[in-house]
Amino acid sequence: MTKTQVFKFGGASIKDADSIKNLANIFRNRLRKNLIIVVSAMGKTTNSLEELLELRINEEDWYQKSAILESYHYSICEELFPEGHSVFSRIKNWFIQLKNEIERPVSKENYDEAYDRIVAFGELIATTIVMEYLCSQGLIVLWQDARELISTNADFRFAKIDWNQTEKLCRSQLLPKLDQFPVLTQGFIGADANGRTTTLGREGSDFTAAILASCLDACSVTIWKDVPGVLNADPKRFENPLLFDELDYRQAAQMTFYGASVIHPKTIKPLANKSIPLFVKSFLNPDAKGTKIHATGIQNPIPTLILKERQILVTFQVTDFSFIEEHHIHEVYRELDQLKLRVNLLQTSAISISIVIDYQVYKLEKLVEKLKGIFKVRYNEDLQLLTILNPEEELVRKFSGTYSILLEQVTRTTFQLVGKPK
Fold this sequence. Notes:
By secondary structure, this protein is an alpha/beta fold. The protein contains 14 helices and 16 strands. The strands form 3 sheets. An 8-stranded mixed sheet has the order 3-4-2-1-7-9-10-8, sandwiched between helices. Strands 12-13-11-14-16-15 form a 6-stranded antiparallel sheet, with helices on one face. A hairpin with a 3-residue loop joins β12 and β13. The longest helix has 18 residues. The N and C termini lie far apart (about 60 Å). Pfam families: AA_kinase (PF00696).
């Protein structure tokens, strides 16, 4: 049996009808048995679903935004399918289910579980449309609900994988199908032991591709992006970025840890453990070489710039005359773990602990409430975190001058600053 390949397509690659037609063209010469296709929600659908949930929690009118989102998907279908095609009734059914989920009781306390139930519809709707279009073009694929494959715990929004159960499900559910046709499934979503929908963390579709590849001992994973491969800087923010022809697993993992958005942070480990190469290629230029991530054993010395938006700097200061000790850090990290907040940068002084975290709805107020009895808590919102890996002195000097810096950290291989652009 030929080894499985996994392709992953993000939201930008299916944002409109022309993009979906382009995806079909990519498959004309590549579609074969033993191929798994992982697809994200279309365009900015996930953002829209997050906004719907927030409107619902705040008891504001969410119906108009829901209608706009539904219309967006219908308009794509109208360009791809003839009137009366069965896809329209299928999409209508998904939106009826979505509205029923939004109307269920929801509060700040059960936000994470409601989030997973609602946001998952983006992937379910997108894969339905893509599957129907590919089949209409004679490119037959089988639709698979990822919640029947990806088994997780109940840590909603950041679910952890039950690897043993997931592998059993992948082998029993996927292998018989892959021997006949390619399989199309959703990224980002799974289900817990009780069948409740979970998600793997924002932008988690890359991780889904890696999970499926690892469980089936695939020969490769290819992530299709709107960039030519892995670059040393985001081309939307920095001029003249350089393309990496290849990267070692460790260097790629380090880049994702600091926030490089081209690959989800959890993607590398399961692939490296099985020595499965990861290709990052352009869906705009599918025949170009792209970037290959594998075991090179070599660190590429090119400086890499990574920018994270919507960062929050939180400082916890002791309220008496004692100094910061290990138990203070333990108190902070215990609450961060409870709230599933990841620290992007940590710095301690004699009397304070400073952390940088991503913005997440309602999480900051909960963190402050939990720790205000132990520390004096201060925070700054809407900041940027700039990381330069393999920094050069001239580059550090250039960017330092463009920020009002609140915090700075330097190691042998990394320069980081937190602040606001001047």
